[in-house]
Amino acid sequence: MESVIPKMDAVQYDGTNGRFIAEEFLSGTTLGSDDGQLLQLIDGQQDPQIYLGDWVIRRTAPGGRFLYAGGFTDADYRAMYTVLS
Description:
Elements: E1 8-12, H1 18-25, E2 30-34, E3 38-42, E4 49-51, E5 55-61, E6 65-72, H2 74-80
Antiparallel strand pairs: 1-5, 2-3, 3-4, 5-6
């Protein structure tokens, strides 16, 4: 038996990288709006809102896709996740 963990990646919304998050970091997501303070993503399911400084988590899906797995404040992200190198 093997112990495994799902592959997840994170990126912090810095007010300038909204298009990257919507179109490259995530799959099947489009940019709803981005005013540098609030990023609105459209994914047809959750349509998350990401605030400046929040972290976006993606999970790997079949077919080489990356799906939205959550958005967290910096404090919550640091409390809930450990970065692996």
